[in-house]
Amino acid sequence: MLFLIIKRILLGFITLFIVSIITFVGTEVLPGDACTTYLERQAFGEQLEACYRRLGLNVPAYERYVSWALNAIQGDFGYSLSGEMPIKDVLGPRIKNSLVLASAAIFIGIPIALILGIITALWRDKLPDVAISTVTIFAMTIPEFISATLLILIIAIWLEWLPGIVIVPTDVSFLELLPNIILPVVAIAMIMTAHMARMVRSSVIQVMASEYVQMAILKGVPYWKMVFKHVLPNALLPAINVVALTIAWLLGGVVVTEVVFNYPGLGRLVIESISNRDLPTVQALAIILASIYVSINLLADLLTLMLNPRLKTLQIRK
Predict the structure, then answer these.
(1) Do residues 43 and 35 lie in contact, with contact meaning Cβ atoms separated by under 8 Å?
(2) Which of 40, 93, 128, 294 has the fewest other C-beta atoms within 10 Å?
């Protein structure tokens, strides 16, 4: 198992290395450069040369990549052109806000998805399964921007229960931010819960149809004892990867949702940086989001390896 863990970690680092190269090259081949975009009509003469020297654009691309990568490993992503401050200072409040939004959606969505998935599997093809499956399939087919827009229309405009647009500043405190995340959390958790519930349902049904479960039924093992002792532990193990993939998908959902609700997080910063051609910030955001994605999947792989009873059996035999 130790070899598999080391292999997963190495693959994670290789993935981040490839992403860093793609990100750097992708921003380098764009028309113009950061200085000409930042200076606009004043992008000539001494001012342009001074900007090149300040940002290190007067050295070859491969040297800039090595310098950028080494600094990024240490947490130094450079200087934001639009914010006119170090990128780490720009990212701090945004990361906090996005973590609040994503954490709330995860803590609400995962338990509900597990419960719904188990209910629909145990009462397969009955009224609870038909009703819940219909709702989850409907929720899965709606893109994030449409569900978010519908929530704003119904809850904020028609019923006037909650604000539809977040107008708090980026560095707002947690308590002031909390009332503004209800609609964004619902928009994200709704789709995330639907996907996870369907996956958990399939996993539980598959385990219920396995030979050892059928043998337990024939031996007269009480139904609910069999469910909680044998079915759920084995069915929820594959669900770890499903949860990880869903949380990783959450990165894309957060970007769309934050833009719709004007939420001051990383998602909105991505769009703002692209619009302002703030290339250093775009590079930093790309590598940070990729690191989160890889880390979540790596954690899921490690948990699966450690909790896999087959691997434990092999270790005991050895």
Answers:
(1) yes
(2) 40
Domain boundaries, the chain: 93-275
Residue 314, pLDDT above cutoff 60: no
pLDDT digits (tens, 9 = 90+) for 40-71: 666 677 777 777 777 666 777 788 888 888 88
Cα→Cα distances 165→103, 147, 157, 187, 259, Å: 20, 14, 11, 13, 10
Cα–Cα distance, 240 to 304 (Å, whole number): 7
**93-275: what fold?**
MetI-like fold (1.10.3720)
Lookup: tokens for 65: 């990549």
pLDDT in tens, 219-238: 777 877 777 777 777 777 76
Instruction: Indicate the length of the chain as a whole number.
Output: 318
Instruction: Record the tokens describing residue 60, joined without a space.
Output: 């070859």
Instruction: Share the mean pLDDT of the chain.
Output: 79
| Whole-number Å distance between alpha carbons of 232 and 223 | 12
How distant, in Å, are the alpha carbons of 93, 190, 246, 261 from that of 173?
Answer: 10, 26, 28, 18
C-alpha–C-alpha distance, residues 108 and 271, integer Å: 27
* 169 DSSP 8-state letter: -
| DSSP-based three-state secondary structure for 141 | helix
Question: In sequence order, which residues have a C-beta less than 8 Å from that of residue 52 and are 6 or more positions away?
Answer: 35, 58
